[in-house]
Predict the structure.
Amino acid sequence: MPRLPEYLKRPIIDTEKTKIVRNILRTKCLNTVCDGARCPNKSECYAKNTATFLIMGNVCTRNCRYCNISTAQPEPLDFEEPKHLAEAVRDLGLKYAVITSVTRDDLPDGGAEHFKNCINEIRKITDAKVEILTPDFRRKFSIEGDDSESLINISALTLIIQGNPDVFNHNIETVKALFKIARPQGDYELSLSVLRYIKENSDIVTKSGMMVGLGESLEDIEETLVDLKDAMVDILTIGQYIQPSKQHMEVSKYYTLDEFEKLKVLARKIGFQNYQIAPLVRSSYKAMQSWQNCK
């Protein structure tokens, strides 16, 4: 495996502000993807009094080969979580809250109503804008045949639209050629269909992101960006994949800073005007700024 470049290394920051964030999360019994996914930006975000909330538990029903979140049988939903989440958003003084979740294939709606409840509770006691990063809410069985369109959980997506988040994010994560290797329980076309469905049935800003460094070619990246643009995605994020442990997919290469600049050029060529592309970009990177640029 290639050696981690210096520009991907981040120091551990431990200040009074990071302690405040950790204490609020602990008091409210909340999880963050910052911890669960071993995000390299965690210390920086905590120091800025913010975090990306991880709802519906800290174990996932899927086993994506790049993700550090554990796979196991999840616990029942905590119906007090939306209230506790809203209180944490208020106590942290957030003007923009980002909420993601583990995948909950055990739930009929995949957790869509829980997302809606979280949005509603936040808006009851704060004026924060809300971005959600969701799984695909895949139906357990296709209606006719095996095409991905028949796997869209329309009732779940209807609940999401009713919740009316300011931004709906669903990450494609990787290119079509590597999708089944990296996300064996996912479906590339289904993910595109979910993004397209939200855009066609609401005025919610949509967003998607991917990692590079899993073995994709530039042509693979271009194909996926074209697909995302065709799905009417408003905001694009691209960052470098960093292997969480030796049990996860290996890094094929670390893209150079010049190569990331070329990806920006490619994104503009395809038609994306609002994007965050850099080595340490993750889904919530400059999330509020990206949303503001869409207004």
Q: What stands out?
A: Strands lie at 31-32, 52-55, 59-60, 70-71, 96-101, 129-133, 167-169, 205-212, 235-240, 274-277. Residues 112-125 form the longest helix (14 residues).
